[in-house]
Specification:
This protein has 10 helices and 3 strands, in the order ααααααααααβββ. It has a 3-stranded mixed β-sheet with strand order 1-3-2, with no helix packed on it. A hairpin with a 4-residue loop joins strand 2 and strand 3.
């Protein structure tokens, strides 16, 4: 009587962790949290500071002070993230995507919020991760401001907001498993909400500049928080609702129409770039050099 053996069931493939152009280390993460906290204070101070505080007494000066501070902090975050592993391949991809985004922004400038660069930021952040997304959003907005002449005290707030926008896409769930229509629906929904959030943040950054030009919707440093919230809501409805809605709709349409192809291209480029694959060099061997594959990367052996 012979023993019968059961055929071994095929092992299920383990989902591969998505490659990241930038892995956030403790230092870069701390810098990112710091600049985000200061950014929240910079755009939300009219609702955080009581009417009797000294900050409210300098309502016209505070936006300028926060703008100067954000420039320094965004630079610190960029340097910290670069130090944590922004290699030459990641820099090259950053340059290509930032240039593409900056070139897309003027296409719909001045036309009902048609800004196609937003969908590219969403898809890039999704594929390349939150660290790369923050750097990409900030650099793209800076480059587009130089291209369109949109340099002003609002630029640091735009850079920070776009960095948040792209970083949030990298924090969405299921980066290694969710694919197809479900992923496109997730990204389109996020893009719709984030487009309105971007417009709201920029409104909060510029709203205190109004002074007494429009008494019914302007920020009043002596009014309670509830009154200023009502004024701000009216300001958003009167000035930016059409732009924000146009930006959100364009982001959704482009994500659903072009998202599959763009995601595929970004993931293919990420795999070929092999951001996380280490490359080492060994001493020459007798008989000539050759390329030897390893589990953790590719080792190049020099010839004689």
């Amino acid at each position: 009587m012979t023993a019968r053996t059961k055929a071994a069931a095929p092992a299920r493939p383990t989902p591969r962790r998505p490659a990241r152009a930038v892995r956030l280390g403790p230092r870069s993460l701390a810098a990112l949290l710091l600049v985000s906290a200061v950014g929240v204070a910079a755009v939300g101070w009219p609702f955080l500071a009581p009417p009797t505080s000294g900050l409210s007494a300098h309502a016209q000066d505070a936006p300028w002070l926060f703008a100067g501070l954000l420039v320094l902090l965004v630079a610190v975050v960029g340097a910290s993230i670069a130090e944590s592993g922004l290699g030459p391949k990641a820099v090259a991809m950053l340059g290509v995507l930032a240039a593409t985004g900056a070139a897309l922004r003027p296409i719909g400038a001045g036309t009902a919020g048609i800004e196609p660069m937003f969908f590219l930021m969403v898809l890039s952040g999704r594929v390349l991760g939150p660290g790369f997304g923050f750097v990409l959003g900030s650099v793209t907005m800076f480059a587009s401001a130089l291209l369109t002449g949109g340099v002003g005290p609002w630029l640091p707030f735009q850079m920070l907001s776009m960095g948040w926008f792209a970083m949030g896409a990298g924090l969405l769930p299921g980066p290694d498993r969710l694919r197809g229509r479900a992923e496109l629906a997730l990204l389109a929904g996020y893009g719709f909400v984030a487009a309105f959030a971007y417009g709201t943040i920029m409104n909060m950054a510029g709203w205190p500049f109004m002074g007494t030009l429009a008494s019914n919707v302007a920020f009043d440093p002596d009014a309670p928080v509830a009154t200023n919230l009502a004024r701000f809501f009216a300001y958003c409805l009167a000035t930016s609702l059409g732009w924000d809605l146009g930006r959100a709709v364009v982001t959704v349409v482009l994500t659903l129409a072009l998202g599959r192809a763009v995601l595929k291209a970004l993931r293919r480029a990420t795999r070929r770039a092999a951001f996380e694959t280490p490359v080492t060099f060994e001493a020459p061997r007798a008989g000539g050099g050759r390329e030897t594959p390893h589990m953790t990367g590719v080792t190049y052996e020099a010839g004689p």
